[in-house]
């Protein structure tokens, strides 16, 4: 029997059932006594009845999980056990009417906490992760974001093993205790929800710096790492200072405490966490030097450090009323970190890489069984909703508001949002209302973007009449049904539009009926009905529309471009995104035609126009190397799979490999000249981390990969030389990626040398695991199974799991989707093993199975068999249950 049919199926939580908390907590005094057997936690809560939730006595109900309650004292009187009820996840206390003081004593065992939520041990370090609902594993508490309190925290621990004791805010007292123990007391003056609580205890190295805010306050900055790693924190520290400056300049947001701390830990479920004044990071997103981290790693670190820092205002000062509003802080903060990175580096390149992520991961989510709106209206396990929809699509929704209001209007809206809501827990609707009230722009229909799931398709058709010089552009929209939402309404869709003249220059635009277009060459057209036609006048013959410029809305565009139009835009569009998109579309059409040929048993031949467009781009020396490397990347296998009704994994893989071979071979001399020129420009050591230098390395690696793909020995020879493990990581990884699919001894030797050099460095070893798991070679699954026994692998460390298991199941479609179902069996087994240890990560690992409808009948059956095997487990977590049951629904 499916657990779905079982009477104890986990029950969903619904937005419509939201009710304000019956009691508020004003202050929390928490004492945590870390001990080898038990950790004792004492909480003194000062609370009162919430006037917004009615009057009269109401029982105090607290959340709690995985802990032993020792004693409860209410207003100075110890309660008898008969006076309260302890359920599996709730503690119910007597009804109270007025203010109260509650003391809760309990004990927990962080050393057994493998779920990495609440207080846990990572190596020799104690640390916390409380978002979303981890605080209830530390003490009984109203663990919901609309309860905001001032926290004072006292930590006690053995001094020798845990010399560093940290919590949010300012350290107000430290001292010695008997038996070699010591304590520290931290006070955070800002009211905050429990999910922003954090504490750390361990033996850590510390790197200190400082920052002077624009009003002249000095802030101490500290990054804590395992001793020995201090030398790898410089980039994170610089990124932090740049983020602080940017937030002052762009939004007027200044940091508000005297100290800002970051702690890097090796066992962490996600990327990082924005706890007030004490961010905790997955060490992978802090530690970097040119020998061990790639340029991509450096850029991700900068973006994530910025993201967590930016949460101080968008998330911490103003937080979410309930977890359905998660995108209030996440969509907005992703938008802010994307803009920060665009300002620090190349705006066009950043946009392209963000769009690629959205399309590769969010579009499939929006089209599959776990599709949900940016503001979900129901969930079983909130941890499953830290999704690309809430984060990345949420950011696109904020970006559309920015486009509709303009930068000044958006800034006015942000100012009003902060003025109204600082110190509060609010909703997405409050955010939109501030944007409206600050500018007078009506966003009532725009709110559908928060409530309606699914990716709209915009269809664009046009007709030019040479006699009247009119171009009629007809636009229409449709959003497919998604689970629970069979029909959709049209939404306002901002479409940045231009017309590119035959000479390659954008034309001044005038709409029919306008006396004068003002000379502007770009318009934001807002498609807010099911269909509409706009007419441009004075349009010369041969003009080609450039649509959805900058990817101005998260939609699929079906535009009537011919291959010639696309080739023209690929060389002429003045919008970087538009130019990249044109070449992507041209390549996608060609690759899909190759897939069709292979399906029909015919040879796959690459459309020559793609090669010519590549040749032209290669020769265009006005392009920045970083942008050129994006331009010359073919769409990935999963994007091609999505573009097909049925994702034929083998044919997609073969077609793409053949296209790369042809492009590599035909343009070999061009790649080779480029590679040589760029390698000569690379200073020894590779420590130049400027945007330009990173761009040159990206392009050199792209050229190298095409040379290897050509099959010529010279390409392999160059890659083998570049793969030598004494090089900088960007170059070594570029070479290893280029070699990774080859059935050649050189490939094995290069990987073995890399392993031997880095086997004792866990973060670099992860790269090796991911390479092994991501190889298209036929022996990959066997290799992966063998590596589960590698001394460097541990199922308890999420980074290892994501590198090895995720590297195979999410990063290697052609092998994971092997027709015999072996990849699915492997994943089912791993998900079940992991679920007993870390349900949150297990649920994420289940994702590659959910889109089984996208595959042929044989694979679809094998995938659903694997899902059934998972869901029939008698001890399944609600995390995995939610994903698997939705996938099978
Ligand atoms: N708020 C963090 C992400 C995060 C979410 C949940 C976590 O554990 C369940 C951990 C981190 C961010 O947006 O960076
Ligand atoms: Zn975030």
Question: Strands, helices and their partners?
Answer:
Blueprint: E1 13-14, E2 23-33, E3 39-49, E4 58-63, E5 68-74, E6 77-78, E7 85-86, E8 90-96, E9 100-108, E10 118-122, E11 125-129, E12 149-158, E13 164-167, E14 170-177, E15 181-192, E16 199-202, E17 205-212, E18 218-225, H1 234-251, E19 259-265, E20 272-273, E21 278-282, H2 295-310, E22 319-320, H3 326-344, H4 347-366, E23 378-379, H5 388-421, E24 425-426, H6 428-439, H7 448-451, E25 457-465, E26 470-478, E27 493-500, E28 523-527, E29 531-536, E30 544-546, E31 556-559, H8 563-572, H9 576-599, H10 608-619, H11 625-631, H12 637-643, H13 649-666, H14 668-680, H15 691-709, H16 713-722, H17 729-739, H18 745-758, H19 762-774, H20 780-787, H21 798-809, H22 813-816, H23 822-835, H24 839-846, H25 857-871, H26 878-888
Parallel strand pairs: 2-12, 18-19, 19-21, 22-24, 25-31
Antiparallel strand pairs: 1-23, 2-3, 3-9, 4-8, 5-6, 5-9, 7-8, 10-11, 11-16, 12-15, 13-16, 14-15, 17-18, 20-21, 25-26, 26-29, 27-28, 27-30
Helix pairs in contact: 1-2, 2-3, 3-4, 3-5, 4-5, 5-6, 8-9, 8-10, 9-10, 9-13, 11-15, 13-15, 14-15, 15-16, 15-17, 16-17, 18-19, 19-20, 19-21, 23-24, 23-25, 24-26, 25-26
Zinc ion binds at residues 307, 311, 330, 333.
Function: Aminopeptidase N is involved in the degradation of intracellular peptides generated by protein breakdown during normal growth as well as in response to nutrient starvation.
Protein name: Aminopeptidase N
Family: Belongs to the peptidase M1 family.
